[in-house]
Amino acid sequence: MNILVVDDEEILQDVLGLLLRREGMRPIAARTGEDALLALERESIDLILLDLMLPGMSGMEVLRQIRQRDPEQVIVVITAFSSIEGAIDAMREGAFHYIPKPFKNEEVLLTIRKGLDQRRLTSENRQLKEQLEKRYGLDNIIGKSHAMQQVFELIRLAAPSKSNILVLGESGTGKELVAKAIHHHSRRASGPFVTVNSGSMPADLLESTLFGHVKGAFTGAIAAKKGLFEIADGGSIFFDEIGNIPVETQAKLLRVIQEKEFMRLGGVDTIKVDVRLIAATNADLENLVAQGAFREDLYYRLNVITIHLPGLRQRTEDIPPLVRHFLRLYAAENAKSVAEISPTAMQRLMDYRWPGNVRELENAIERAVVLSTGDLIDFDLLPPAVRANGGGGADSVGNGFQLPDQGVSFWDAVNGYERQLILRALRSAGGVQKRAAELLQVKPTTLHEMMKRLAITTESVGV
Ligand SMILES: Nc1ncnc2c1ncn2[C@@H]1O[C@H](COP(=O)(O)OP(=O)(O)OP(=O)(O)O)[C@@H](O)[C@H]1O
Ligand SMILES: [Mg+2]
Q: In the predicted model, what is the mean pLDDT of residues 322-345?
């Protein structure tokens, strides 16, 4: 540990020097502010002990200049008891602590240790933040296609604004990834990012989750609880699957967006929050509006800036870079040396239709990496659905169909096919919906919705 001691008194330099050396630290002496600044340029300093009474440049000025060059630098001010005012000013300018003279050795050591802890924490926090930024940075969203380049441009432009943002795209296209990138590129980046899985929650539960409740608001409300809007204050709130929100809750949501205030369930006080709303859906909201299932006014409030993520099959040029990205990721995660994919396998990946989009591709690569024994991923390691046919259609589940001569109702046929596929998945998952959803590479909430739409019940599964 390098400790810079800035003091013009020879005797103090000696005393502090001895003390620090005894504790295994390395004292570096500077007798003027100018010397101190020079030392900072030459050496890496972990902490500074600074006397405020210096010849030449004043102690306060030295403090200011150091803080300007390195705001993380920990400075402990030493000052004569008679000039305690100066110490208070120094604290205001960002000094970590002050020690009045004459001091006890123990006191100096204790303060130094606390200061070093503080320094370690600050730098750990900064590193964590940098890591997070890297993780949610645009670099981590892969896409060289023109469509994705436009998405990046839109994120860069829209993120710093205050506007609500709507992210549209099929399942697995990266909506959540984009929502996080928006948050991390906004001025709220250091604030919270809170996700609401609006999925299949009943209205009252969803509302108490969002707005919180007071004690005794309903049976079971034994204590007051903060809602997600309060938790997200100063940050962003991400509504996943906004299309699923019950109409009665939509009205309340609209109010929060407009008034920026709400009440806890059963409460009388209005609570003000500063939250940016990012919503995502794979549903056709306009269609839901037309059907009366989604409030038109809310739709217009959300739809200030829309980011549309195209399906993976519409941007096949993104497939090779995505494959390389996931290959690297999962090879590292599984401590494998797989580095490459054979040209035949890559061709097949590019021909496949990817109904589950990037998520399905990611799963396919993870699976291949886990199963691989060599350095190369070949055709045989691709999932059966991808190997079976490039179309990823009916044949991929071995369930071909014919078109009768007299024609067929397209929607009935599609519904029938969906029903069969879901029933099969549920049966092979032993009726466990979460597992069936994994087999179909959809979210459990999506499966739940589809089951509702197709009137599939536990009885129809028959397990
Ligand atoms: N462009 C991309 N680059 C890298 N990874 C991506 C990209 N798009 C998606 N992914 C990855 O694919 C997976 C699915 O993405 P995400 O959860 O954001 O999709 P989604 O649109 O929210 O899906 P759903 O509608 O099912 O919730 C995640 O693991 C994500 O990291
Ligand atoms: Mg999602």
A: 90
Ligand 1 atom at minimum distance from 141 CA: 3
Can you tell me the distance from the alpha carbon of 200 to that of 183, in angstroms, rounded to the nearest whole number?
25
366 lines ligand 1 (CB under 6 A): no
Q: Say yes or no to pLDDT of 404 above 80.
A: no
The verdict on the CB of residue 282 being under 6 Å from ligand 1 is: yes
Mean pLDDT for the stretch of residues 203-232: 88
Q: Are 255 and 263 in contact (CB under 8 A)?
A: no
| Nearest alpha carbon to residue 358 among 309, 406, 401, 391 | 309
Q: Is the CB of 174 under 6 A from ligand 1?
A: yes
| Per-residue confidence (pLDDT) for residue 393, from 0 to 100 | 41
Please report, rounded to a whole number, the percentage of residues in the chain having pLDDT higher than 90: 61
Ligand nearest to the CA of 176: 1
Residue nearest to atom 31 of ligand 1 (CA): 177
Can you read off the two tokens belonging to residue 342? 């054979």
Question: Mean per-residue pLDDT for 423-451?
Answer: 89
| Count of helix runs (H) and strand runs (E) in the chain | 20, 16
